[in-house]
Amino acid sequence: MRQFSPVKFNEVKLEGAFWKERLDTVLRTTIPSQHEKLGEYKILESLDLKQPPPPLRFPRNQHNFTVQVFWDSDMGKWIETASYGLSHKRDAKIESQIEAIVDKFEKAQLPDGYLNMWYIGREPDKRWTNIRDNHELYNAGHMLEGAVAYFLATGRRRWLDIMERFIEHIRKTFGPGPSQKPGYCGHEEIELALIKLYHVTKEKKQLDLAVYFINQRGKQPPHYFDQEARARGDDPANYWFKNHEYSQSHQPVREQTKVVGHAVRAMYLYTAMADLAAELQDAALKKACEVLWHDVMATKMYITAGLGPSAHNEGFTHDYDLPNETAYAETCASVALIFWAQRMLHLDLDGQYADVLERALYNGALSGLSRDGKHYFYANPLESIGTAARWDWHTCPCCTMNVARLVGSVGGYFVSHTENEIAFHLYGGISTSAQLKSGKVALREVSNYPWSGDIAIEVNPDAAAEFTVNLRIPSWCKGAKCSVNGKAVPMKKLVNGYLPIKRKWQKGDKIALTLPMQANRIYANPSVNMDIGRVALQRGPLVYCIEEVDNSGGPVQRLKLPRSSSLKIKHRADLFDGVVTLTAKAKAIVHKDWKANLYRTEAPRETLTTLTAIPYYLWSNRGQGSMVVWIPEA
Amino acid sequence: MRQFSPVKFNEVKLEGAFWKERLDTVLRTTIPSQHEKLGEYKILESLDLKQPPPPLRFPRNQHNFTVQVFWDSDMGKWIETASYGLSHKRDAKIESQIEAIVDKFEKAQLPDGYLNMWYIGREPDKRWTNIRDNHELYNAGHMLEGAVAYFLATGRRRWLDIMERFIEHIRKTFGPGPSQKPGYCGHEEIELALIKLYHVTKEKKQLDLAVYFINQRGKQPPHYFDQEARARGDDPANYWFKNHEYSQSHQPVREQTKVVGHAVRAMYLYTAMADLAAELQDAALKKACEVLWHDVMATKMYITAGLGPSAHNEGFTHDYDLPNETAYAETCASVALIFWAQRMLHLDLDGQYADVLERALYNGALSGLSRDGKHYFYANPLESIGTAARWDWHTCPCCTMNVARLVGSVGGYFVSHTENEIAFHLYGGISTSAQLKSGKVALREVSNYPWSGDIAIEVNPDAAAEFTVNLRIPSWCKGAKCSVNGKAVPMKKLVNGYLPIKRKWQKGDKIALTLPMQANRIYANPSVNMDIGRVALQRGPLVYCIEEVDNSGGPVQRLKLPRSSSLKIKHRADLFDGVVTLTAKAKAIVHKDWKANLYRTEAPRETLTTLTAIPYYLWSNRGQGSMVVWIPEA
User: Fold this and answer.
1) Which range marks the domain in which residue A458 is found?
2) DSSP assignment of A592-623, as one string?
3) Threshold 0.90, pTM exceeds
């Protein structure tokens, strides 16, 4: 296995307009406003142990579950996001807000290291009795990710120390010993967090605990969650999901071949599996990841890289079930797909992973965050009749901080390297450097990506040296061209979607890469019956949609795009501080002559019109209205 | 208000092949097999009071509700259906089965007349404490309909006596008096049943009780269901539906202008409202019916006359929300729409009501019963990817007996009359007679309807007399022609969809009516965004669908019907004992060159094929497979 490592996100300076704006918005608006929401929604108050505990703000649902059990994770994720902010720019107010949270967690932590505000505050005698549903280890994972990020941003170790004590407690609690529980969390997350901790502390025991959880998952009989249910006096048959596919624990992970269950749970699991495949050089685990990857890519991914069509299980159903209007496609799932894709990419430098990473980043994930940085989508439908609207918060606010932490650390996805290779995965205007065996190489990539595919890269090694620069040529791109210092590089050298340029690089070497950005029509496999007769538009990495505000004449469901219409690319400086729209001659179905008739034998009349499409991630930033990604093709 | 009355169903002999076959199947198979199912599913056992009561066969759902509370209604409906069978042909075995049920109801009835097996057997102290949810009056209504039908079929009064005692108890319990409850049932039904009782006994008090329930409905504040909830120690805010639209009790009925809530509840209510509008000559009530009729027709009815898109409330959502694959369109709702349409038709002889009655009868209702007479659809989707299948019974078996009682009494929908007018609403081969002021008129209508529109009617008055024969000219028909004794009747005389022929009729007069049955393409209002770019096929009253078994090459979702393709009518003697299919040149999207690609830029290839459509009501009689009503139009 070829092992690439990403350049640290905070060592990547975002200079291009697109990501600079998104990052600035997250730093300036999203992080402070999310702290306010944590206050407003009483999440921070859960740190103040009160007797008796206050009434539930979010009552238990029909499955006897309240979202309040994962409030610890929300605070953990906010600390992580805020720490990414601090990595970019120290901020005394944010730091004091983090410290105030850490103070209270520290005070609440039990002498044995246990730390969970729900159980400590409300059900102290019930801890570790329902890890299928109640997210104790999931919370620990997000708190740990936050602690790692805060340590890396500030060097302060207190929060990490607290979490390490908690992890010690978890290590004592779970394991093969006679007094230990052979369990694992119903919501995967701690596994990937432990690997992050291992990367900081290099302690093998942290990796071992992640391996234990991964290897235990799905072992049976007996199934741990059934054992656990019986132990607390519950009938396993009462489990609302009926089987363990919901938490990907229906089989040992190496035997799993189909992507099932809750989408975010699945993506967090596969991320940890791919991480471990790399750390352990475990070919079987890597193979399992590849099989699962193939399954989701061939049958289960929206064109936006949204995952999980169903609200019922927040997850997967059957192959090719990709309804548009009711698409759940949780923001978190696309964010987590980015994590998984990055891990796969570092196992094999293969453009298929980077293509999906990019697709999720610019579409299904980014759509979750509004232009103003404080409104969100939890579900990301591909069609709306005008009823969908962004939230300023959510009962379960997981997505709000997931998309924010993604943007806060987005620099980490652009460039990776080995000892003697550099790989550019994304473009968008960055400067960074990579430490190769031969010495440090400063890199600067200048572009107006994703609006333009004209890319200039400066390669500046401290001293001239031979190494390889791999440039990703996206699969959406036809006719890419590349030159070094004005001399063409033949594109036939492409390997798995990357153009490797191996040479002796000198200070001041210049790569010119041109990725022509034609507007493409995309069709779905006919097995996706919802999209038959429909076409989606894409330019560069951006999937487009038509929104009512740009298209007069009622709901955009009434527009048809003739196959013969050419797609015109328009740079619009007046819209969203500059975007590229696509326009085309189209047909609009006439409604006004229908009166009160619901049915008639005369075909609807059609008029000629012009259709205007905007990037999908920007929809629902100008009030409510209808929206369509898959446009009927006339 | 012009007042037509239907000819009694058992005085209409079904001689045409279509209805003869359906009725024979119900008599021979459906009625006996449903009695078996009542046994198999322990519904009959609920008549045997056991202490302690046996465990629930169907556990309470998340709303603390079990379908077992309406088992009495299932037995009432089976008795009603079986009695319709007896009206056609006495059968000692069926009669003894009915008598055995009546024996047990009689034995269980309390001294004060109360009769409900759920409450008597399980919660005797809780009767009349939750009529919002627990169906006591609804059950009484179906038991009463059964008692009326059994009395009319056999002249035996015992079951009717039992029910009249129960109704006396209900009359004492509900009303404006200080010791009475000002309530009404959460599931309408008893209102229309009381009117049926009134028609048999002519006692005004039965009509008055129906009027009381109708007039009380939706009065507030306080709302009766809220009062009742508080009285039993329940918080009205816990009501799962959150508001009273579910049971059409959100407003007094005369103020209601939008069709809302549970579809079957709504249709039963409107049926009773229209009944009372006629009985009371109540113009305001009639107006309310007309406003509601317009609302459902303009915005909420599937082309199959299915009603209620949503499984969540088994009912209505927002205007134009008519999803195909997830259509709930409960069989009972289409059956009940037929009841309502018939009442409207008897208020005004207007073809719009008969058109809908016919549409519901031949499509949304009849689809609920299989060819073999013992498999059912509860929900009637307009599209399937192959997962839908008929049931041999249902947890809540309401639809099974609703469609059976409809077929058992279908003769009652063909002909109505006043003192001096006769109206033919449906055709299909019947003989009957109508008692006019001038004397008795024997009528014989000979046709192979709905497969052919060539109709011959013999009018045989006992003595020559002047009266009017009104012939319905369906709105789907263009170019109808009519003659009496060979002499053309000008079609310009058409009034509200009926051709009135007023003349001095003589024995042996012959009407020839030709209703050309072209195959029509039907389009949906563009506000129904699910059907944009799609076309439905209809011939005569039958809506068609394409089913996988008739169309090779995978799911029928991949077929497109060019607008230019002509529809060919084929009489197929080999299929379902003779049906008319529609065929057309079509395009099929090619799937095999897609391999594992989920998306691609190349448009799907298409091949030419022939599409074969069958009547919708016949779908899912040849195993599982995909099905589409609204076909993409190329």
Assistant:
1) 415-514
2) GGGTT-SEESSPPPEEEEEEEEEEGGGTTSSS
3) yes
